[in-house]
Design a protein that fits this description.
Chain lengths: ~425, ~425
């Protein structure tokens, strides 16, 4: 934990630095995996599952029977929670649907956009200790709303060759069309290249370890789009004298428990609030099952005292956090000043967990400073916006001269002629 | 020119193939250029200008004096045309501005999105024979509308060290904040890394040759976003018996004149229309100054006769053209079936040139089949959509149980605790 009192602006560049991700090392491994999957398809995936997941599989396909059984083994309580979250996520993402708005830019020249779902999308859900069924909701719900016709999901099996039932339940609930047992870079390779069982897709979504991240980048060489570049998860909490140290500590810890590379930043205008928050962290962390990871993350965290909330927001804009919690009284006042952030949580009761699971916003957000140039996942991530234009004969007459003059000035005679020949007719 | 009569569906995969772009060769050159620009900044740019543009420069900065002089040397007629185009482009892109829509997903749980312009963007405009001031309009107007605070433009100088006046005029008219004389991969490197004169930016837009395209891809390794992946320009024209062969020929030629690698496809349900279109092409091409390039492009073009317009649209969806012209009578009928295209031109008077210059739609569009998973440039390309949420104490009470159950099922106790600790208070 690093504590900074009134850090100078010229120190900020140092403070906003993220850990450097080593890419070079894995790139050869990724290229090899893609080559293997391209050559041997499903067979390659089964061999990798044996190697990396210690699972003996006959097929990568998850059967309808497995999905039905999963439905039976998820508790009614969890099902109800997942359904409630689904409702809210659906409601918020439905509000992102844009109607068709026809604009007559010049008389009888009419332009508009229409959205079309990307036909085939792939969702990757990591395995490991935490079964991230919440990410299934976040990535499948907008895909279905967007009208994507093929929504496939790949996730690694456990040692017995099974997928966590909550993942299967969420997937079928949210319109995933096919589920496959495949993990890591090889799953990304399969969704990029296609195998006998797994169709290739046009865009790949979802989190993962450094191999998955590198594989998604590599997939772009094959013309596949990805949701966004990735990095470790982050939270920046800004607290004034009305913040509640217990709550701040809990929010910082909920970020820290993600992993030892999680980024945690706390900025306050109030020394007492900061001291109490640190004290609270030291108390609360003891009770956490994942306290080892949380402690490692906290060891690298920054706690800052600044003079004004304006300065805190300025720093946040330079850092560009994935999650920004404004635990301040007059949060409305600071909203217009927020320029770079993935998702913003306002007041003392908007904890990050709300957005992580169930409030309705998407939890797939730009990390690593990418909030400066990328948005989080939304309905937009699943559609292409196609422009349309209709010009009547009169419409072209109204605009023709303008086009002819510009085309000529650019030295593109055929462009000009496409207008002239019509005007002459 | 390849002519296909009623091609079988199993031949389509062959017909939609794009020319393969050789990437490998240039990647070492790009890496070297980035290293050079990182090390020597402006000095490297001046040396490259000498080498590649045969221009002796003292500075890469375009002075206000040069911009003012450019204004004087552009004809009033061209100025008026540029202003008219600017009006239409502004009107259409303004219509893409999304208002704030607050959604109460659960009682007292309120979620919304707000747009923020990407703070620093860079526009690349190629040099060469055609001064692409129209691309300045297409890339700077939405940047200004989005509220990007720094909008820089790089373009190579001619041998005398000058920039085409129409480019300078359009840039200052559309809110470009700074203009630099730098071309090719080195300009992209400068906008990525920054030099003494050129600020680094968060997103780079604009067309270019294979070096520029490769440099934009390479820039992503430094966390810079780009507008979209690139390839040669394309048009697909669908014509029924009501199409006008003269117009179709003119549209195909206006695409073909872009360059020898331009992709041109013509599909008709009417043999006579196709034959007359080919005849018209042979007549019209004679009068074109760029007929050498156009002929090379046409040599690789496909002309197809199909049985129905539905089949033509199906083929188009598989090809995913940058530009799709529906020169058919009942074009409305086919709009819902269009799934993959960059921009669509409807009827006999909506020529591609209209959208290239002045109707209001953006002409920076996905090529090379990327219309399957990417949209063209729009206002969206210049903003981040930040999600916000406010939960009152009661709001968290209403949703808390759902969050707690899900967090627990994912094994993330600290996430659960961030809710529990608030509900207990």
């Amino acid at each position: 934990m690093f504590i900074h009192r009134y850090p100078q602006k010229n120190k900020w560049a140092e403070l906003v630095k993220r850990p450097i991700l080593k890419k070079e090392k894995v790139s050869e491994i990724i290229a090899e995996i893609f080559k293997e999957v391209e050559k041997n398809g499903d067979e390659a995936l089964l061999t990798y599952s044996q190697k990396f997941d210690s699972a003996e599989l006959n097929t990568v396909i998850v059967s309808q029977n497995e999905i039905d059984e999963a439905g039976n083994s998820v508790s009614d309580e969890l099902k109800a929670a997942i359904q409630k979250a689904k409702e809210n996520i659906t409601q918020f993402h439905t509000s992102q649907q844009a109607g068709i708005q026809k604009i007559e830019t010049t008389q009888e020249v009419i332009c508009w956009r229409e959205n079309r779902g990307i036909e085939k999308v792939g969702i990757y859900i990591p395995g490991g200790t935490a079964p991230l069924f919440s990410t299934v909701l976040m990535l499948a719900i907008p895909a279905q709303l967007a009208g994507c016709s093929e929504i496939i999901l790949c996730t690694p099996p456990d040692k017995k060759g099974n997928i966590n039932p909550a993942i299967l339940y969420a997937a079928q609930l949210c319109g995933v069309t096919r589920i496959f047992k495949a993990g890591g870079a090889q799953a990304v390779a399969a969704m990029t290249l296609g195998t006998e069982s797994i169709p290739n897709v046009y865009k790949i979504f979802g989190p993962g370890n450094q191999y998955v991240v590198a594989a998604k980048e590599y997939a772009q060489n094959y013309g596949v789009a990805i949701d966004m570049p990735a990095g470790p998860s982050e939270v920046l909490v800004i607290a004034d004298e009305k913040a509640v140290p217990e709550f701040c500590a809990a929010d910082l810890l909920s970020q820290a428990e993600h992993g030892s590379d999680s980024q945690v930043i706390f900025i306050s205008t109030d020394l007492k609030i900061m001291e109490e928050t640190i004290e609270e962290i030291n108390q609360q962390i003891k009770k956490l099952p994942r306290n080892g990871m949380a402690q490692q993350s906290l060891d690298n965290s920054h706690f800052m005292i600044v003079k004004t909330l304006e300065e805190a927001v300025d720093f946040s804009n330079v850092y560009a956090p994935e999650h920004l919690i404004l635990a301040v009284k007059d949060f409305e006042k600071y909203i217009p000043s927020i320029r770079n952030a993935g998702s913003v949580f306002l007041g003392n009761y908007a904890c990050e967990s709300a957005g992580d699971y169930a409030s309705g916003t998407n939890h797939t957000l730009p990390t690593n400073g990418f909030a400066k140039n990328y948005s989080g996942v939304s309905l937009d991530s699943y559609v292409k916006k196609i422009t349309f234009q209709y010009l009547s004969k009169q419409g072209l007459k109204n605009l023709g001269k303008t086009i002819e003059i510009m085309a000529e000035a650019e030295g593109l005679s055929a462009h000009k002629n496409a207008v002239s020949i019509r005007l002459k007719k």
